[in-house]
Design a protein that fits this description.
Number of strands: 25
Structural class: alpha/beta
Strand order of the largest sheet: 1-2-5-11-12-13-14-17
Helix content: 40-55%
Number of helices: 27
Largest sheet: 8 strands, parallel, barrel
Shape: globular
Length: about 675
């Protein structure tokens, strides 16, 4: 609770008048309809807040007045045609007020801190570390044994995966949730989660967990009630008496898992109805056109935020809204709903940030930050899926022209957001390469995607990769890829062949990737074990719950013996960890890498070199990357034209030698030039 120091009720009344005046000054932000809605919704707030100190009450009202227009504009297009819209808004505001009252004092202080520093997640010191709790430490309570490791690495953002209760057996890696509010019993308790959040926060680390928005498990109480015939809960899902509407939808719907979950609808034998199941038969899609679903998820969000979670990875958001005749992805209502969810956090739990998990085509990806009327209002950060795909594309082809073209086409992002930059995650890699981008550099999009799948599956002659094909779609020819960073980068093959030279090249490729995501401007996300070079785990098939999902191949358990060798430069893990640590230390001192500043792609005309320029009032930082195993020579004029005055490499801490306007780039060289 924020300390309030009023000595008399008169002083409190005077401050209340001041707050009322402040709200009045914000009246220009509210349309007449929104103002009327807010006035009605406020009716129950007074009693809900009555147990709080006056200053805390005022802070809630200030935030409500400041952000209500965003909330209203997000929800009106979705639910505004309903006769009960005003009642819904009143229930929502009361829900926010009640959870604000329950918010612990230390988190209210963090709210104020982030009100004062809204760009906290954009800072160049940010580094994310992502892991399955069971693979990293076994249980939540054991994660605390490794906080020194995380702190030493420089992690300031920790993504805990598969935290909430999921179904037994197959559960899509934990994304078939049976209870949004309860920690998975195999990992511990909610008290363990809250304790871990407190410990991480004390070390300056934010905690992210997944909030699965598109679906829940068929064993969730909502789904069980729907199966039993409860009409209230049947409206939480898309349930049809026969195949007429499902067949009509299917005409334009893609298949996410064509091998083990073909189609998008499943016959539920208990209810006798066809249920929309985009991902798996055991994951029922939620019906977001029902405002009750919105209220349920908001309450879940607040409950978890009040336990200390301060980043929500909003899972599968692209699929949240269904529309006949479309692929039912990236619909406008998705962005309305995401704007409303983010605004709820801004009002009640302002310390909380939202990350969009939208693995979509480049033209749609930018919309998850908000364009047009949603500009800057949708999410705080999102995965830069295109950067990840283009890294692997250029690494395989040794040709950066497609990468330069595709990333140059991205429009400017709002200065209030940050990309989550990454090389791989817990999921497979899908080749989201646009045909027009490929054609612009003389490639056939379909052929290039086929080449990439073949290369990273180790099928292409001369490939260094060891990966696995995932979800071969025979209708489209698309094949996605599984594999750890190290195995896809050639380390597994190099060790298998016993070649020190190939080991050196694999290490250079991995460090090239780390330098790329750390030098892009945003939040670099390191998946557990990639700092040590963990290889594919082919023993996943020995675990019954994992055997049917080959993505577990690139979700190995943490090898703490290798971690203990992280400072030994005579080991592979030592070389990788030390190399990454150096990049992170340099990044923390490079103000150009703050995410609020622009990142421009520089076309140097060199087919093997990728270059970008991070703009800053103190000067430009250019990042130069050689994507081949051969020495390359780069004309420096494009660097001078991009704003570089002197050629000094921050990563090696040395001046760069220039001969006849040309610099030499070693195999897989990475330079951060100022």
């Amino acid at each position: 609770m924020i300390q309030q120091d009023f000595s008399t009720s008169e002083q409190a009344a005077e401050e209340s008048v001041k707050v009322s005046a402040f709200r009045h000054r914000h009246a220009h932000l509210l349309s007449a309809a929104a103002l009327a809605c807010l006035q009605k919704a406020n009716s129950g707030v007074e009693s809900a807040l009555s147990s709080l100190e006056v200053r805390d009450q005022q802070l809630f009202r200030l935030r409500l007045a400041r952000w209500f227009q965003n909330l209203y504009e997000g929800l009106l297009p979705v639910y505004g045609q309903r006769a009960d819209f005003d009642d819904f808004m009143e229930r929502l505001v009361l829900l926010m007020a009640r959870h604000y009252v329950q918010r612990p004092d230390d988190l209210k202080l963090l709210d104020v801190e982030r009100d004062l520093e809204p760009d906290w997640f954009q800072h160049e010191s940010m580094l994310g570390y992502v892991f399955y709790v069971e693979q990293f430490a076994g249980k939540l309570s054991k994660v605390g044994d490794h906080l020194d490791y995380l702190e030493e690495m420089g992690a300031s953002y920790v993504h805990l995966m598969k935290v909430m209760q999921s179904r037994d057996g197959e559960n899509d890696g934990g994304y078939a949730v049976t209870d949004y509010r309860r920690v998975d019993s195999s990992l511990g308790t909610n008290e363990d989660l809250e304790s871990l959040c407190t410990d991480l926060r004390a070390r300056g680390m934010s905690v992210c967990i997944d909030l699965v928005l598109n679906h829940c498990a068929q064993e969730h109480p909502w789904a069980l009630a729907a199966q039993a015939g409860d009409a209230h809960y049947q409206d939480y899902f898309y349930m049809y008496e026969d195949r007429s509407l499902p067949d009509a939808f299917e005409r334009t719907l893609p298949e996410v898992f064509p091998e083990f979950a073909p189609g998008n609808f499943t016959l539920d034998e208990k209810s006798g109805k066809w249920v929309w199941t985009t991902f798996n038969h055991f994951q029922w899609d939620l019906n977001w056109s029902n405002p009750e679903v919105f209220l349920e998820i908001v309450e879940v969000m607040f409950d978890l935020a009040n336990q200390g979670v301060d980043v929500f990875r909003l899972d599968a958001v692209a699929f949240m809204w269904k529309r006949m005749g479309t692929d039912s992805q990236n619909q406008e209502e998705v962005f309305d709903l995401m704007q409303a969810l983010r605004t709820c956090s801004r009002i009640t739990t302002p310390a909380v940030a939202h990350k969009a998990e939208a693995i979509v085509a480049p033209d749609d990806l930018i919309r998850y930050f908000g364009v047009g009327r949603h500009h800057g209002k949708v999410s705080n950060f999102a995965y830069h899926n295109s950067l990840m795909v283009q890294f692997w594309s250029s690494l395989a082809s040794r040709d950066t022209r497609l990468m330069t073209r595709a990333l140059s086409e991205f429009p400017r992002t709002p200065n209030s957001i940050a990309w989550g930059t990454y090389l791989r995650c817990h999921d497979d890699i899908g080749w989201a390469i646009a045909d027009d981008d490929a054609e612009s550099v003389g490639l056939n999009g379909a052929a290039h995607r086929h080449f990439l799948s073949s290369f990273y599956a180790g099928e292409f002659e001369g490939s260094f990769a060891r990966g696995g094909v995932f979800q071969f779609n025979r209708a489209t020819g698309d094949r996605r890829i599984n594999g750890t960073l190290a195995s896809l980068s050639g380390l597994e093959q190099a060790i298998e062949w016993g070649s020190p030279e190939l080991v050196d090249l694999a290490i250079e490729r991995i460090l090239l990737g780390h330098a790329l995501i750390c030098g892009f401007g945003g939040i670099p996300l390191i998946y557990m074990g990639d700092e040590l070079g963990l290889l594919n785990d082919y023993h996943y098939i020995d675990t019954p719950d994992h055997a049917g999902d080959s993505r577990w191949m690139h979700r190995p358990a943490m090898d703490w013996e290798k971690a203990d060798r992280r400072h030994d430069l005579n080991t592979i893990e030592g070389r990788l960890y030390t190399g990454l640590s150096h990049i992170v230390r340099v990044r923390r001192k490079a103000s150009q890498l703050n995410a609020r500043y622009d990142t421009d792609i520089v076309d140097t005309g060199h087919p093997h070199v990728f270059t970008l320029a991070n703009r800053h009032p103190l000067g430009t930082l250019a990042c130069v990357y050689n994507f081949s195993e051969s020495t390359q020579y780069l004309n420096v004029q494009p660097l001078y034209e991009s704003g570089i005055v002197e050629l000094y490499d921050k990563l090696s801490a040395r001046e760069i030698n220039v001969y006849n306007d040309v610099i030499e780039l070693a195999p897989y060289a990475r330079l951060w030039v100022t």
